[in-house]
Design goal:
Elements (H helix, E strand, L loop, with lengths): L7 E3 L2 E3 L6 E5 L7 H13 L4 E5 L3 H12 L6 E6 L5 H4 L5 E4 L13 H14 L3 E7 L5 H6 L4 H18 L5 E6 L3 H14 L5 E4 L8 H15 L5 E3 L11 H14 L14 E4 L10 H12 L9 E5 L5 H4 L5 E5 L3 E6 L2 E7 L3 H20 L1
Parallel strand pairs: 3-4, 3-10, 4-5, 5-6, 6-7, 7-8, 8-9, 9-10, 11-12, 12-13
Antiparallel strand pairs: 1-2, 13-14, 14-15
Helix pairs in contact: 1-2, 6-7, 7-8, 8-9
C-alpha cells in the first residue's frame, strides 16, 4: 500500500512512506522479571512483531531493562512510559523508541510547562538516536483539551495529537509517529481519518485501547482497522487482546492476518456488532497488578452472557494507569488492584471487593441495569 506519510527509522525498521506495515505487540510479563520478559520478547518477535514494547515505571525496572536489552539483540524495543516521562533519559540507552502519553504530562513536575517537558523528550530522543510515539488515549486526554472542547472527547483527542505534532515541528524533531486510540472502533476510525487529513505527513500507529477477549476483540479490531487500511491510513499497528501470557503472540498473528486480508480485499461484515452487550477489557501487560485479571475478564464475559441483547457496557481494567479513567464511561466498571477489585457504576464507586467476591456484586448491579433497560423498552 502506498502511504503519503514520511518514512522514519525505528531501530533499523522503516515505518511510513510506503514501507510495509509493521505489526507490533507489548510484553505482558513483569518488567522486573528479566527472564520472563526476555522470553516473551523473543516469543513476540518470533511471531512476526517488528517492534516489541516494554513498560517501565520505576528505577528498578530501568535496571531490568538494561539486562533485557543485552539479551534481546536484534529485537527492536520500544519503552512505554505513561506516567513516568522523567525516566526517559535513563531508559534511552536501551531502547529504540519512547512512547509518551500527552495526557499524563500535566500532573508531573507541575513547575515545568508541557512545552518544556516535550522539548526535553525530543532532546533525549535526538541524543540517543531514538524515535518517539505520541500516544493519545481516549481515557486520558489532557484536561486542557477536554476543557477547550467540552462534551466532544473525539475533537479533544485529535487536537491534542495535532498540538503535540506542532511541538515536534517547533523543536525540529521529525522522527515520530502518532496513535489516537479508543475502545470504540467507530471512534478509532473517525479520529484517525481526521488526524490524517490534518497531518498527512505523520506516520500513524493504529490501535484499539481495550479490544478485549477473543473472538469479539478480534472483530472489534478488524472493524476499526479494515476501512482505515483500505484508505491507506496506518503505518504500524498493534492488536490489543486480553490473553494469558503464553498466548500473547496471537496479537501479532491477528495483526498480520488483518493486513493480508485487507490487501486481498477480504473484509468482515457484522451489522449487529456493538448493538448489544459490550465488554471492554484491556490487554494484559506488565502493569497488571494481579494475574487473576485475565481470568476475571473471562468470568465477567460468561456471567454477563444472559444480558447479551441489552446495550450495556462493562469495562474490566487491569491496572491503576488505565483503570480509574477508562472505566468512567462504562455502565459497570471493574479495575483490578493487587488484592481487590474496584467496582464502579459510571464514575461512581460502589466499593472494593476481593477477586472471589466481586462477581456476586457485579451480578446484582447487572440485574439492576437489565431491569432498568427492560422498563425503558416497555
Amino acid at each position: 500500500m502506498a502511504h503519503k506519510t514520511r518514512k522514519i527509522d525505528i531501530g533499523g525498521i522503516k515505518v511510513g512512506g510506503g514501507a510495509p506495515i509493521v505489526v507490533q505487540s507489548m510484553c505482558a510479563t513483569r518488567t522486573a522479571d528479566v527472564d520472563a520478559t526476555v522470553s516473551q520478547a523473543h516469543q513476540l518477535a518470533g511471531a512476526g512483531a517488528g517492534i516489541v514494547r516494554i513498560a517501565v515505571d520505576n528505577e528498578r525496572e530501568v535496571a531490568a531493562l538494561k539486562e533485557i536489552r543485552a539479551q534481546t539483540e536484534g529485537i527492536v524495543l520500544s519503552v512505554d512510559l505513561q506516567e513516568n516521562y522523567k525516566l526517559a533519559d535513563k531508559v534511552a540507552p536501551y531502547v529504540d523508541k519512547i512512547r509518551y502519553n500527552p495526557g499524563h504530562l500535566h500532573h508531573i513536575e507541575k513547575s515545568r510547562t508541557i512545552e518544556q517537558k516535550v522539548r526535553w523528550l525530543t532532546e533525549v530522543a535526538r541524543d540517543n538516536d531514538l524515535a518517539i510515539r505520541i500516544g493519545v488515549n481516549c481515557g486520558s486526554v489532557a484536561p486542557a483539551f477536554l476543557e477547550k472542547y467540552p462534551g466532544d472527547q473525539l475533537t479533544a483527542l485529535v487536537e491534542s495529537a495535532v498540538y503535540h505534532c506542532s511541538l515536534m515541528d517547533d523543536y525540529g524533531f521529525d522522527r515520530f509517529v502518532v496513535s489516537l486510540k479508543d475502545s470504540d472502533p467507530v471512534k478509532v476510525r473517525e479520529a484517525n481519518r481526521r488526524f490524517s487529513e490534518r497531518r498527512p505527513d505523520v506516520p500513524i500507529h493504529l490501535g484499539v485501547t481495550e479490544a478485549g477477549l477473543p473472538p469479539d476483540g478480534i472483530t472489534k479490531t478488524r472493524l476499526a482497522f479494515e476501512e482505515l487500511l483500505a484508505q491507506e491510513i496506518g503505518d504500524t499497528l498493534r492488536v490489543s487482546l486480553t490473553l494469558p501470557n503464553e498466548r500473547k503472540h496471537e496479537e501479532v498473528l491477528v495483526g498480520h492476518r488483518i493486513i493480508e486480508d485487507v490487501a486481498a480485499g477480504r473484509f468482515i461484515s457484522v451489522p449487529e456488532f456493538g448493538k448489544g452487550l459490550n465488554i471492554i477489557s484491556c490487554p494484559s501487560c506488565s502493569r497488571v497488578e494481579n494475574e487473576k485479571f485475565v481470568e476475571l475478564a473471562q468470568q465477567v464475559k460468561e456471567l454477563a452472557s444472559y444480558a447479551a441483547s441489552y446495550r450495556i457496557t462493562i469495562a474490566v481494567m487491569g491496572c491503576r494507569v488505565n483503570g480509574p479513567g477508562e472505566t468512567d464511561d462504562a455502565d459497570l466498571g471493574l479495575w483490578c488492584g493487587p488484592t481487590t477489585v474496584n467496582l464502579k457504576r459510571k464514575d461512581h464507586k460502589l466499593g472494593n471487593f476481593k477477586y472471589d467476591e466481586v462477581l456476586a456484586r457485579l451480578r446484582v448491579e447487572l440485574d439492576r441495569l437489565v431491569a432498568e433497560r427492560s422498563e425503558q423498552t416497555n
